[in-house]
UniProtKB/TrEMBL annotation:
The keyword Acyltransferase does not apply. GO terms for molecular function: 2,4-dienoyl-CoA reductase (NADPH) activity. InterPro entries: DECR2-like (IPR045017), NAD(P)-bd_dom_sf (IPR036291), SDR_fam (IPR002347). One of its GO terms (biological process) is fatty acid catabolic process. It catalyses: a (2E,4Z)-dienoyl-CoA + NADPH + H(+) = a 4,5-saturated-(3E)-enoyl-CoA + NADP(+); a (2E,4E)-dienoyl-CoA + NADPH + H(+) = a 4,5-saturated-(3E)-enoyl-CoA + NADP(+). The lineage of its organism: Eukaryota, Fungi, Dikarya, Ascomycota, Pezizomycotina. Keywords: NADP, Oxidoreductase. SUPFAM superfamilies: NAD(P)-binding Rossmann-fold domains. It is an enzyme of class 1 (oxidoreductase). Pfam families: adh_short_C2 (PF13561). Its EC number is 1.3.1.124. It comes from the Eukaryota. This is 2,4-dienoyl-CoA reductase [(3E)-enoyl-CoA-producing]. It comes from Aspergillus carbonarius (strain ITEM 5010). One of its GO terms (cellular component) is peroxisome.
Length: 317
């Protein structure tokens, strides 16, 4: 259903900022990524979002399109980011129907709570494949179009003006802050996101000379998202909220605004960076999974298995 603009975008940005631009986003039906794309569409972009679930992805695309009359938003389901050919087909359709790709958001990710004792090799590999290999495949499939867009919008070093209207040739990898200090029951995600971060830094160095910028957005605890519901036990919600430096969770609007900042002219000289949007949460000593009944180190020493938390999917991984 249509969302109020205030829910996903602040009033700081000029209308039409991304007119005639195209964004390609993996994991685009997710709570955070859909808000990122919705903000760009409101500001003039057209979009292509991809995901595993066909119905969910197509519905999300239709919903995002309500952000701006006459916008074009394509939802492509049954896309497995672990397979380059699957992504390539989606990219080809995006370019064919929308005319190119100026911005990319690599947002597909997998997560669940598990101690190392519970974590099978297959489960570990699954998260690595989705996050790291999926991000790399997203890059490989879209890179020719990012380079093309970057060349078209190259900023002149003397006048600081782009050679074409607007911006282009920019990629954002959606990461996390978990691996900065590590967190119990999140070994698989910590390793995966560290790999994603390294990938983004390498892209910035190798393709910067061609005008492509590569950056990371690392969200902290964001309210009303699938990730928070899955990873933060309900019995610890109140105490965890109080522990936050700003006394609250973030919102999807915070992440969307950060995305606009990087993709707009404001981000023309920002590359190889990590933009942490977490209200200083990661600088606190304890992570979300260490609260409530999963209190650290008592729960680990008990030898018990991590119980189901809200939103956790049953799995044989």
């Amino acid at each position: 259903m249509p969302m109020s603009k205030d829910a996903y975008l602040s009033d700081s940005w000029k209308d039409g900022l991304f007119t005639n631009k195209v964004v390609f986003c993996t994991g685009g039906a997710g709570t955070i990524c859909s808000a990122q794309v919705r903000a760009l569409v409101y500001l003039g972009a057209n979009a292509c979002i991809v995901g595993r679930n066909v119905e969910k992805t197509e519905k999300a695309a239709q919903d995002i399109a309500t952000a701006r009359p006459s916008s074009k938003v394509i939802g492509i389901g049954a896309v497995d980011v672990r397979k380059l050919e699957s992504l390539q087909d989606a990219v080809d359709r995006c370019v064919r129907e929308l005319g190119g790709i100026d911005f990319v958001i690599a947002g597909a990710a997998g997560n669940f709570l598990a101690s190392i004792n519970q974590l099978s090799a297959n489960a570990f590999k699954s998260v690595i494949d989705i996050d790291v290999l999926g991000s790399y495949n997203t890059l490989k499939a879209t890179l020719p179009y990012l380079v093309e867009s970057a060349k078209k919008h190259r900023v002149d070093s003397k006048t600081l003006k782009p050679s074409a209207a607007g911006t282009g040739g920019r990629i954002i990898f959606v990461s996390a802050t978990i691996h900065y200090r590590t967190m119990p029951f999140q070994t698989h995600v910590s390793v995966a996101k560290a790999g994603v971060d390294a990938l983004s830094h390498s892209v910035a160095i190798e393709f910067g000379p061609l005008g492509v910028t590569s950056n990371i957005i690392a969200p902290g605890p964001i309210a009303s998202t699938e990730g928070l519901d899955r990873l933060l036990p309900s019995d610890s919600m109140e105490s965890y909220t109080k522990s936050q430096p700003l006394g609250r969770f973030g919102s999807v609007r915070d992440i969307a605004d950060a995305t606009v900042y990087i993709f707009a002219n404001t981000g023309s000289y920002v590359s190889g960076q990590t933009l942490v949007v977490d209200g200083a949460s990661w600088r606190m000593s304890a992570g979300g999974a260490a609260y409530g009944k999963l209190s650290y180190p008592d729960f680990l020493l008990s030898g018990d298995a991590v119980p189901n938390v809200k939103g956790q999917k049953s799995s044989k991984l």
